[in-house]
Amino acid sequence: MKVLVTGATGYVGGRLVPRLLDAGHEVRTTTTDLSRPAPWWSDRVETVQMDITDAHEVDAAVAGVDAVYYLVHGMGGGSDFAEKDRLAARNVADAVVTHGTGRVVYLSGIVPPVERQDLSEHITSRLEVEEILTATPATVLTLRAAVLLGSGSTSFEIIRQVSERMPVQTVPTWMNSDVQPIAVVDAIAALVGALTADVGSRSYDIGGPARIPYAELLDRYAALAGLTRPQVTVPFLPTDVVGTIVGALTDVPTPTVEALVESLHHDMVCAEEDFRRDLLPEGYLLMGLDEAVRRSLTDPRESLQAEPETADPMGPLAHDPSWAAGGDDQPLLARAVDAVQDTVDRVLPG
Description:
Order of helices and strands: EHEEHEHEHEEHEEEHEEHEHHHHHH
Strand content: 15-25%
Region (Disordered): 297-330
Largest sheet: 7 strands, parallel
InterPro entries: NAD(P)-bd_dom, NAD(P)-bd_dom_sf, NAD(P)-dependent_oxidoreduct
Helix content: 40-55%
Domain NAD(P)-binding: 7-156
GO molecular function, one term: aldehyde dehydrogenase (NAD+) activity
CATH class: Alpha Beta
Pfam family, one: NAD_binding_10
CATH topology: Rossmann fold
CATH architecture: 3-Layer(aba) Sandwich
Number of domains: 1
Strand order of the largest sheet: 3-2-1-4-5-6-11
């Protein structure tokens, strides 16, 4: 099949493309800037310039492909991120209709079983993107994941950097919801399977074998990383304050941190696990939590020196964000000062 992968230079996309190539598919990828350094697999794909908010560029990118992977999300701050997500989804949906594209595979987030008005803004936006894409005649498969485990994953890097930089883990009482993490290699296997699965349009919740409270996930990470991190439960901490503090203590962009923290008011677990039957090869075994964390902790000096085609995708890869693999080594005191200042600015604006 000829496949378009949007977001191919992102964390998941960069690991998905070589799997699609190995499976014999012809791949077209997009970039907003053709002069940017290309991933190691770029000589095996066709790359076109595309801004997903530009309808003409999206139409040109979709022309002639059998399927589209939609791997873009607006995780930035500001009040217009939902409108940008909406515009991007409509552009892809219109192009899919125009060119008769047969399949769209969309990687989204777990949607907890609560009233729509109780969902976070970012989960609501992702659900709206799903609805826009599913309204097309194409077969649209939405894979909803919670925490992706792997070096460079936004969720994993938050867990890693908070655990390594805070001598005591302070956990708000409302953050002890259950999560169901999935190793990125298992998520990619499901994404590859979604391309040819003999099913109609639907969503799949995808998660690993462990369903675990978020506080216990932090504790498990600390133990596997060889850290001693006592936990203190703190009541009445506002969500925006927690997001600001965690954003200041980590190298992950603060708006992204705030969006992910907001989702932890609800259990982020699978309501069903049909993906194991429909999207994964028969007999496929999902990676356990402990193994996923250990493989994600690969020393970057070892992983980045390996040939990229043989490197473990659970570990760091050269195209990962600059804040991945543990981030920089700014002193904790300086980060704490930044966190306090950011919190004061949030509580006492102006």
